[in-house]
Specification:
Elements lengths: L1 H7 L2 H11 L7 H12 L4 H13 L6 H13 L4 H12 L9 H14 L2 H13 L6 H13 L11 H13 L7
Length: about 180
């Protein structure tokens, strides 16, 4: 029913169903994502953020896909960068939440390169390192793109031989990966 309410954009019924759903012993991350995203896509970001905090605070195990979906929806509606940061920090400081996957960290790192301060970027790079994701091809590609973008202030960027070498090294590192 939650899925149906989401697609029918019936937020009042969705909210009622959510209260019943939260009484269950376990949560499905996809179902929670539908609920949060329904409110986000109706531009009720503040309520969605509060709801996200409440769900995390219930201390039931949460799958990383819930975080990834919520961050993506916040970004799609152009929510403030600080709101996305809040989601991440709340998630990683909760013991019941699965650690973010490399894809989510790469996405967040890209957002940090676009909107973050130098200290925020450094913290995000350190988080990627802490999780052991520095050698992940997605994280490497984001870092490489940021390096090229920040090289000069010209709108049109010049790709150097070193850039091509870095891209080929990343490509070659994933050539036998089933995840690439």
């Amino acid at each position: 029913y939650i899925w149906l309410c989401y697609h029918l954009n019936d937020l009042s019924q969705l909210q009622l169903l959510l209260y019943s759903y939260l009484k269950l012993p376990e949560y499905d991350s996809q179902t929670l994502a539908y609920v949060i995203n329904a409110f986000v896509y109706n531009y009720d970001v503040e309520f969605s953020l509060t709801l996200f905090h409440s769900i995390v605070d219930m201390k039931k195990p949460l799958n990383e896909s819930f975080l990834a979906s919520t961050i993506t929806s916040f970004t799609k509606v152009d929510a403030l960068f600080d709101k996305t940061l809040d989601l991440l920090h709340y998630w990683i400081n909760s013991s019941n939440c699965e650690i973010p996957y490399p894809k989510t960290i790469a996405f967040l790192l890209k957002q940090h390169y676009r909107f973050g301060t130098k200290s925020e970027i450094t913290k995000m790079e350190n988080l990627a390192e802490e999780y052991g994701y520095n050698n992940n091809f997605l994280v490497q590609m984001v870092k490489n793109q940021a390096q090229i973008s920040n090289r000069d202030f010209n709108h049109k960027k010049t790709i150097t031989a070193e850039d091509v070498k870095n891209m080929l090294a990343i490509r070659n590192s994933i050539s036998h990966s089933k995840y690439a």
